[in-house]
Each structure stands twice: as structure tokens, then as C-alpha cells.
Amino acid sequence: MDQSKLKRCSASSSSHAEAAAEAADPLQKAERELNDLETEVNCRKRQKQEEETTEKKKKCCFGTKDAEGNNEHTIFVTGFDNSGSRDEIRSALAKHFSSCGELTRVFVHIECETGVSRGYAFINLKKRVGIEAALSLNGSDLGGRKLLVTMATLRDEYYGHVNFKGCEICFAMFAAASRRLTRWKLKTGGGKFRRLSPELEEKFRLRRKELMASRKIEKSKTKDG
Fold first, then answer.
1. What does the alpha-carbon distance between residue 120 and residue 77 come to, in Å, rounded to a whole number?
2. CA torsion angle 61 122 188 163 (round to 10)
3. Which of 12, 161, 183, 198 is most buried when burial is the number of CB atoms within 10 A of its CB?
């Protein structure tokens, strides 16, 4: 008998043996089917989570390209009608400040859970010479409302966002805000030139306390390991 016939015989015997084993032990077959079903369910769960995350990023204002970009030249605007959608508010502000030069960014903070604007926006201009023109619009009228326009670094909202209902993407931005606050304090001699509101100071104090506690736990785990 040549090698090919031997292989066919061996394969046939193996398949018969497996069939016999399954017939003799139906629990083994059921267990395999259960494992396959569990794998498929887990795969679908992961896919659903990825889709939900993508959808949250679309809804969350911090998932947009305009979320990042605050700097010492950023303009802060408040006082406008916040009943419109994010796109409506952005368009209205962009049109109002178009006389100041080319705008590179108009970021309107929206609460994910409520879908309502927080009532303020950050604006960046391409050329710094437009900053003075933008600041001159302080007190100007937009839709029957008087705007307050100032440098963003003079506002607490520039350093962090408190008392709002957001998603995990929003809270991830809190860490970035903490880093901005640290850099600002270094530039202003420990913040002696400007004091934050007591509410925001307490928020940052608690956050720093949590970070220090987590670092101590990590260090103790490293030593034990």
C-alpha cells in the first residue's frame, strides 16, 4: 500500500474516531458549541462598545477637532443665546467675529447628557493682531444679547470645567485642564497674580489628592512585587 492510501486510511480512521468520541460523549460537543457561542457573544459586545464609543465622540464636544487649541491668545466669549445647537452657535459667533480676521477655531462647550450649551465659547484667530479687534467687541450685541469678551486665561473655564453632566471623554479632558493650570501657575509665580474661584480651587485640590493617593498605591504595589 502506497503512502497516499495510508494517509487516506489514517484520516478516515481519525474522523471515525472523532465521530465515535462525540457520540460517546455528547457533553464534549455541547461544551465546544457553548464556547463558540460565548466567543461570538463577546465579539459582538466588543463591536457594540466600539460603536457606542464612536457615537459618543460624535456627540461629545470634546470629541471634535475644535476641542483642543486653548492657549494664551485664546478669546473667551459669553452672554450669547445658548438655546440653539452647537453648529448654530458656532456659525453665529464666527459671523460676529469675522471682522477681526480669519478664525481658526470656535469651540462651544456642550453638555453631552443634556445637549445644552454651557453658555460660553473659546475663539482663536489666525493672526494675533485680530485679538485687539475681538476684545473691542466686548459689550457688543448679538441676537439682542450683550456679549462679554475677554482673554480666556482670565477665566476659570479656561483651566477646568466643573458642575456639568458629561461622559468619560469629558472627564478625560479634566487631566489636560490640570496640566494647563500647573503651567499657568509656573508662569504667574504660583498664581499670586490671579486667584481662582474657591469652587474650582477645591475641585483641583481634591483631584490632586486623588492622584497622590493613587501614586502611593502604585508605589506600594511595585515594592511588594
1. 6
2. -50
3. 161
Q: What is the DSSP string of 38-56?
A: HHHHHHHHHHHHHHHHHHH
User: Whole-angstrom Cα distance, residue 211 to residue 175?
Assistant: 10
C-alpha cell recorded at residue 187: 508662569
Task: Indicate whether 62 pLDDT > 60.
Answer: yes
So what's the pLDDT on residue 128?
A: 84
Question: What would the pLDDT profile of 39-48 be if each residue is shown by its tens digit?
Answer: 877 777 777 6
Q: How buried is 83 (Cβ within 10 angstroms: 0-12 exposed, 13-18 middle, 19+ buried)?
A: exposed
CB contact at 8 A, 18 and 28: no
Strands 75-78, 145-146: pairing is unpaired
